[in-house]
Amino acid sequence: MNYKIDEFAKQVGGSLRLTSLIISRARQIIRKAPIFVDTKMDDPVQIALLELLQKKIKLSDGNVPPQISESKKAGKSL
Known about the structure:
The chain is mostly helical. About 45% of the residues lie in helices and about 10% in strands.
């Protein structure tokens, strides 16, 4: 799994950007945002990471800090 995380960090612009994305999404989950993966986990950080790895969420372009938007597969924006 480490390899996937390293590759994904490269795809989104580095490990700091990936960390920001995961933290932002975890905060949304804590605030009761919809969860886009089926899981029994209750840790918002693990859920956010799983959503990223399954490409259910992605970075929005041009926003600082990074905003989460649901992927085209899911069909909506947060």
